[in-house]
UniProtKB/TrEMBL annotation:
Taxonomic source organism: Pleomassaria siparia CBS 279.74
Record key words, sorted: ATP-binding, Carbohydrate metabolism, Kinase, Nucleotide-binding, Transferase, Xylose metabolism
InterPro entries named in the record: ATPase_NBD, D-XK_euk, FGGY_C, FGGY_N
Chemical reaction(s) catalysed: D-xylulose + ATP = D-xylulose 5-phosphate + ADP + H(+)
Highest classification ranks of the organism: Eukaryota, Fungi, Dikarya, Ascomycota, Pezizomycotina
Domain (Carbohydrate kinase FGGY N-terminal) ranges: 140-240
Protein name from the UniProt record: Xylulose kinase
Signal peptide (from-to): none
GO terms for MF: ATP binding; D-xylulokinase activity
Enzyme Commission (EC) number: 2.7.1.17
Pfam families per record: FGGY_C, FGGY_N
One of the record's GO cellular component terms: cytosol
């Protein structure tokens, strides 16, 4: 009987589960879509918001329901859980889950005849004890922690030293500033918290039947972990812990094992009874969604992944540790000595949808969610919106329907004409200088120029071609869109082309399933890279979608980078405080 492995991805809008065989071929996949399946929680795009305070959060009870539902859906598709040998998973990064004093007892005593929701969520009126000291998990889109970030940024001297130590300067969504705010806003709930999990270790805990350790890759998204020393940074813990003390917070967070392939133990009897998993199924460390995504592909030097989900993230695996306040470094989720380089934008998929919807409205498209008009506009508009590159100004824009991380500005839309090194703003109603259709290409150019600007020092020369990515791999919901792929290649290059995964499934959940297979079955000292290489089937697993580097076009985007950088500086300056790539109290001039 062939062994099978299960991987999960608990992301902003969905919970996905997939099963692979030992040869890593995909067997089954199922998903729960939070908005479609759980409208009763009042969520939109997977989250609840409190705009007055910049809060974005998700109900933990909804995730409990989603776990039972996704397993049910996998079973409906014919999945046979009795073949599963190992489980791992990924959670959207930075979110925290606060466990109550009863959590361990409730997790350890689950009855396979009842749902997770019934047994762990607690009664709405407190009539039943629950496993959580707070019903919500702050989401990565949260922007409520500027005051706390200001404290973190100076805790080790300045943002540069915080980035040097923890891999990132302070960010609104990072767990350290979030824990500090939680502590200040809900002191009683903080006291009543026995353990704090990240979204990834929360999901692992459910499957393990006890609170699981935080993962060595995902822990770097907290501004609390000293990457070089491989331990909690006590000054930062002290800041987040306040008068409750460092030791108390340390015990809430728990120890972090250095081995990303570690088996935490066998599966909770709940899943054995309810779903027929073998009782010896191993639970392998769950990591963040981005660290998990880089495990879905055998990345080589200068390869880049662009993840087009709710967020846009740009990921590379590198032996170089070159932290800077403008971006993030994390421990690699499986391999000591390697790091994950990351850029993360809040305005990814939803910002593109915004423009798609405006274009569809104007063209009275029959299907308001169709990408056809957006794609046509993006691919028929000339490079940088210049019909004649010698006489026409370049059209450069920033499109942020939500407050952005890179650069740190409040929500807004900015459109500028750029010529002879000068930027001239375009008014919102000036459709002559900037037609609505021009936004389709402009948003894609803008998103990819931002990635190119910040990653140019990490890529190497490719043969006779200038320094650029070797391959661009597109993953996430937007990866199916050919116009987005085309623009990614035009702006970013990619000597070997633009690729996407061709095995169905979702890269992040696949990475988790691969990690489950490696962690469960690895031979002595077998690295994840060797394990993947041995099973990798280039023809069967990835597909080349289009050219990357195009001579002449790539160079024109290179020339536009200076204008794009100026545009960002102008917007950040207009918006108040803050530096490029950093958090600020900025208030943006909203043109659109
Ligand atoms: N054909 C398409 N073209 C462009 N974007 C798409 C397409 N299909 C889905 N998407 C985008 O994918 C996003 C969801 O991606 P996904 O990776 O599943 O999200 P997450 O993991 O963040 O929940 C949606 O916000 C949507 O904008
Ligand atoms: O905050 C980050 C990374 O720092 C985000 O990438 C989240 O991890 C959520 O990702 P998606 O839901 O878009 O997959």
């Amino acid at each position: 009987m062939a062994n099978q492995y299960l991987g999960f991805d608990l992301s902003t809008q969905q919970l996905k589960g997939i099963i692979v065989e030992s040869d890593l071929k995909l067997l089954h996949e199922a998903k729960v879509d939070f908005d479609a399946d759980f409208a009763k929680y009042g969520i939109e795009k997977g989250v609840l918001t409190n705009p007055g305070e910049g809060e974005v959060f998700a109900p933990v009870a909804m995730w409990l329901e989603a776990i039972d539902l996704v397993l049910h859906r996998l079973k409906e598709q014919g999945a046979d859980f009795s073949k599963i040998r190992g489980i791992s998973g990924a959670g959207m990064q930075h979110g925290t889950v606060f466990w109550s004093q009863d959590a361990e007892a409730l997790l350890g005593g689950l009855d396979g005849g009842k749902s997770l929701l019934e047994q762990l969520a607690g009664g709405a009126k407190g009539e039943r004890k629950g496993a959580f000291s707070h019903p919500f998990s702050p989401n990565w889109q949260d922007a409520s922690t500027q005051k706390q970030c200001d404290k973190f940024d100076v805790a080790l001297g300045n943002p540069e030293s915080l980035a040097e130590t923890t891999g990132s300067k302070a960010h609104h969504r990072f767990s350290g500033p979030q824990i500090l705010r939680f502590h200040q806003k809900y002191p009683e709930a903080y006291k009543a918290t026995s353990r704090i999990s990240l979204v990834s270790s929360f999901l692992a805990s459910i499957f393990l039947g006890k609170v699981a350790p935080i993962d060595i890759g995902d822990v770097c998204g907290a501004n609390l972990w000293d990457i070089k020393k491989g331990q909690w940074q006590e000054d930062l813990l002290g800041l987040a812990a306040g008068d409750e003390g460092v030791e108390d917070l340390k015990s809430k967070l728990g120890d972090v094992p250095q081995d990303g392939g570690l088996g935490f133990g066998t599966i909770s009897s709940y899943f054995v009874k309810r779903y027929n998993f073998p009782s010896e199924t191993q639970i392998i460390a769950f990591t963040g969604d981005n660290p998990s995504t880089i495990l879905a592909l055998p990345l080589r030097s200068s390869d880049a992944i662009v993840s087009l989900g709710t967020s846009t993230t740009f990921l590379m695996s590198t032996p170089q540790y070159k932290p800077d306040p403008a971006y993030h470094f994390f421990n690699h989720p499986t391999t000591p000595g390697l790091y994950m380089f990351m850029l993360c934008y809040k305005n990814g998929g939803l910002a593109r949808e915004h423009i798609r919807d405006a274009i569809n409205k104007q063209s009275s498209s029959t299907d308001p969610k169709s990408w056809a008009s957006f794609n046509e506009a993006a691919t028929t508009t000339p490079v940088l919106g210049q019909a004649d590159s010698k006489t026409d100004p370049a059209r450069l824009g920033l499109f942020f329907p939500r407050p952005e991380i890179v650069p740190n500005v409040k929500a807004g839309t900015w459109r500028y004409l750029y010529s002879e090194k000068k930027l001239t703003p375009v008014q919102a109603d000036d459709s002559k200088s900037w037609p609505v259709l021009g936004d389709a290409r402009a948003i894609l150019e803008s998103q990819f120029l931002s990635l190119r600007l910040r990653s140019q020092n990490l890529v190497e020369k490719q043969g006779n071609l200038p320094a650029q990515p070797r391959r661009i791999y597109l993953v996430g919901g937007g990866a199916v869109n050919p116009a987005i792929a085309d623009l990614a290649g035009q702006v970013l290059g990619g000597a070997d082309g633009v690729y996407k995964l061709d095995i169905g499934g979702n890269a992040c959940a696949l990475g988790a399933a691969y990690k489950a297979a490696w962690g469960t079955g690895r031979r002595d000292k077998e690295t994840f890279e060797d394990f993947l290489e041995e099973r990798w089937n280039e023809e069967g697993f990835v597909k080349r979608i289009c050219d990357g580097y195009r001579k002449g076009v790539w160079e024109r985007y290179g020339d536009a980078l200076q204008g794009f950088e100026e545009l960002e500086k102008t917007v950040v300056k207009e918006s108040g405080e803050g530096t490029i790539g950093a958090e600020s109290k900025a208030g943006g001039k909203v043109d659109g």
